[in-house]
Amino acid sequence: MTASPAPTATTDRGATRSRLQQHLDGLAGAPLLIGLDVDGTLVDHDGAMTAPMRESLQQAAREHTVVISTGRSVGATVPIVRAAGITHGYAVCSNGAVTLEMDPAAEGGYRVLSTRSFQPGHALRTLREVAPDAHYAVETADGSFRSTQGFQDASFGVEAVESELGDLLELEAVRVVVHVPDLSPQEFSEVIAESGVHGVEYSIGWTAWLDMAAPGVSKATALEEVRESLGIEPGRTVAVGDGFNDLEMLTWAGVGVAMGQAPQGVKDVADTVTDSIYEDGTVLVLERLLSASSAQT
After folding, report:
1. For residues 13-39, b (16+ Cβ closer than 10 Å) or e, as one string?
2. Is the domain defined by 121-213 classed in CATH 3.30.1240.10?
3. Which class does domain 13-115+217-295 fall in?
4. pLDDT by residue (tens digit) across 207-229?
5. CA angle, residues 84, 88, 93, in degrees to nearest 5
6. Does the global pTM surpass 0.85?
7. How far apart, in whole angstroms, are the C-alpha atoms of residue 52 and residue 68?
């Protein structure tokens, strides 16, 4: 969605590997469910994925159940999955509001397993009072977007149809995006607190950016549904992420791993921390999991 802070260097890669080994080697054995954030975890904030990342991701998808778990819409998620060369597995999109099963035999290479929608009108009316200059976009269950004038973003995956805010108030949404370009994250947080918006879950990213979903919906709730459907034990789950919309997922997982460049608030809820996206920190996690699995065979 937005640019991240400058890269943070890690001076001791050996220490990172040792730390990961301590937390992940106990998972050797039966297949795992691995939830992976996209932006800042699989790709950098320019959308680029390294060759080692692609290779380790493909191998992990062959040996375990990989669930791409992102705030991106379906239209912005599927191209990443395809570019990674993953043909089987799952994807949790729109911060848990839409769940896909990847299947090369299905139209487009996937099928929609579930959607979780809500009526955002009350929240939008409230926010309009305290943030009159905000931009708004509503994602509907069919993957399309409608937005106020001039609001487009790559995370939508499609071009949003410009609409009056009054029209957006009446839509049924799987996700609502609110952006205030002229506010810092701290200022925007204060605006959200002042608004008293409730009944929706939200996460604030690197800038004044708000994602809203149905009450109680998060990446974690969608991952839990996948886990239950597959009969994977709760302790045999791993999640990797770097943003505030990953907090529930990192807490839900048997082992939650924060990226090296993640804000401290994200690192605080994780079980351990890997290197940054700029140093292929997720590759280290997947390599450790694959190495532990190989040692059991």
Report:
1. eeebbebbeebbeebeeeebbbbbbbb
2. yes
3. alpha beta
4. 678 888 898 999 999 999 999 99
5. 70
6. yes
7. 17
